[in-house]
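Workshop exercise sheet. Pairs work together: one partner reads the sequence aloud, the other fills in the structure field after running the prediction. Swap roles for the next sheet.
Pair: D.N. / O.F.
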Amino acid sequence: MSETTGGSGGSRRGGGHGIFDDLAGVASGAFSALAGVRAEVEAMARSQAELLVQRLDLVKREELDAALEVARRAREGQEALEGRVAALEARLAELAATQAQSTAPLALPAANEPALSGEARTEAAPDGL
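Structure field:
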């Protein structure tokens, strides 16, 4: 009898392991199914987010960075040109001052003298000014 008791007790424990194995298999299957559902939900959420971005007419980070780089280069070019214009204006002022010192100032017509007509000015000024 001890063989049958030991055998039945052993089969009982084996049966207990079988139930736990079955429960572990069911839990594993449930986790696999949940992982699949999770991936599906993430894909749907990503798709909806992309549609929302397109509808709102938002730009991607790469496009924004490229636009900012173009703006930075334009600003640097503008600053360089501003420096060149300032230097040219200073040189022009120096040349005007030098020319004013070397030539006599032009006499402006007095208030009681009549101004020259357009034809007379053209004839008087050889460069057409």
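Discussion prompt: Residues 60-101 form one domain. What would you look at next?
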